[in-house]
Amino acid sequence: MVKLLVFLGNPGKAYARTRHNIGWMVAEHLYPNQSWSEKFHGLVSTALTLKLLKPTTYMNESGRSVRACMDFYGYSAEEILVIHDDLELPYGTLRLQKGGGLGGHNGLKSIKAHAQSDQFSRLRIGIGRPVHGSVASFVLERFTSDEEISLPLVINLAEKMLTDYYSSLPVTNTLV
Predict the structure, then answer these.
(1) How many domains are there within the chain?
(2) What GO molecular functions are on record for this protein (predicted)?
(3) Hey, is 35 helix, strand or coil?
C-alpha cells in the first residue's frame, strides 16, 4: 500500500511551468490549499494517511530527499509512488506502473540509488521528446502554447488515474 507520494520537480519560479515540473503541477492541483513544511531536503505534508513530498534538491538529487523521508517514517520502496515527467511517452500519455525501466530519467535514477530499489510505483506523465535540440534543454522549457491548452486535461487525467488506482487516495478538486 502506498504511504508516500513523491512529486518530482525543481524549486524556483524559473522552473514552475516547465515540463520537468509536471509532478509539482499535479501536487498543486490535487492539494491546492495544502500546508507544506520544509523537511527531508524538500517540502512535506500530510493528507489523511498519506505523506506528500516535493523534493527541493533539484531533479537529479531527488533520491536524497526521498531517502531522508523513507528513513524517518520507516517506508520501503514498495510504499512509494513517484509522479514525474516522462520523455519516452508522447505528450499527454500517462502510465501507472510499479518498477520497470527508468528511461534515462535522472530523478528516478537518484531515487533508485538512494532507495536501493526500483520497486516503487510511478505515474509516468508523457511530455514527448524534442524534435530538435537537447533533451536537457527540452525538459527545462515551458510547454508549447498548444500543450498549455490541453495541460489541465492531462493533469485531470493524472488525478483520475491516481484516484481510480488508489481508491483511498485523499484528493481535492475532483472534477466530474
Answers:
(1) 1
(2) peptidyl-tRNA hydrolase activity; tRNA binding
(3) coil
